[in-house]
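Re: beginner question about structure tokens

> Can someone show what the tokenized structure looks like for a real chain? I only ever see the sequence side.

Sure, here's an example I had lying around. Input first:
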Amino acid sequence: MRVALHTRLRPDRIAEYEAAHRDVPAELVAAIRAAGATSWTIWRSGCELFHLLECEDYARLLAELEHLPVNTAWQERMGELLDISHDYSNAGAGAGLPAVWEL
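And the corresponding structure tokens:
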């Protein structure tokens, strides 16, 4: 399945956010893959972040990552950089952007 998400950066934290994503912990990348993700891309337009991820089951992915220490540490770090963050609890599974058009 494909899931599109929207988050928003704090204007004064763009450089820090991009630097963090140049060095995502290998343990976190492995955990995301083990939870069923096959790809995850983030685009930035100003402070707006648009994520597209492909995974087997998004609700399962969130459930597997929600309490994983490497993910909770990463989400805490990202929470300091974002005005709008994503909910990694089970409730976040329904927070994807609706598709409007597809070719």
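Each token stands for a local structural state, so reading them left to right follows the chain. The helical segments are 14-21, 26-34, 58-65, 69-79.
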